[in-house]
Amino acid sequence: MRLSILSIDTSSQVSSVAVLSAERVAAEISMQGALTHSETLMPHIETALRMARVEKSELEGIAVSIGPGSFTGLRIGLAAAKMMAYALHIPLIAVPTLEALAHHYVCEGVRLVPMMDAQKGNVYAQEFMWEAGLDGLHLREKHALSILPLTEVIAGLENAEQPVILLGDAMQKKTTLALPANVRLAPIHARMPRAACVGLAALTRLARGEMDDPVTAAPLYLRRSEAEVLWEKRHGTEAAQ
Fold first, then answer.
1. Structure pTM?
2. Rounded CA gap, 156 and 37, in Å?
3. Is the pLDDT of residue 162 over 90?
4. Which long-range CB contacts under 8 A does 52-57 form with residues at least 24 apart?
5. What CA–CA distance (Å, rounded) separates 38 from 91?
6. CB 130 within 8 A of CB 184
């Protein structure tokens, strides 16, 4: 297999690991269950490598989804990826989660709106389209990453002239949500993040010579976690007494 890489996605409740090249996905494990990422990630990595018949020493890169998404999940996935990249002396490729989700639908003429849950009715949202170039299709960002109320994102698609596909865990429990004409919810198998798409996005970045420093790479957060907010409130209250 040429240019074998390991890819990881722990940005949501799904734990997903894949071994792939530009030619094929040799193995992929995705699971959404009661177990935590700390319990499943390393066993999934070992199993995926064994299924793909690839030794760790044969890997030529480690790709990881960096968010936005679950604060705890992102930290676990990135820590594992950084550790392996550093130990194996191979490139680390950090892939924004919503960019990876856009790789679920590689086709022209469709607006892709991946969204991850940001809690309290809000979502992390971004918009992409695939556009034709001399050497194939290229992913273009149409609207920058932002935090918005889900209702506002949906309302903004009301007069969409092109087909729109909604992806991401923000839509996992919104299957009965009223959608404007020409707006569709991705089917369940293509809705949630998966490591193979993280890997495909990473291979594109790696081909351009893009890679990240295992020491300084960090999750993509747009806000603080609830735990940090609560700690600050509690700490501030105690300090004032």
1. 0.90
2. 34
3. yes
4. 52/1, 52/4, 52/19, 52/26, 52/27, 53/26, 54/1, 54/4, 54/19, 54/26, 56/84, 56/88, 57/88
5. 23
6. no
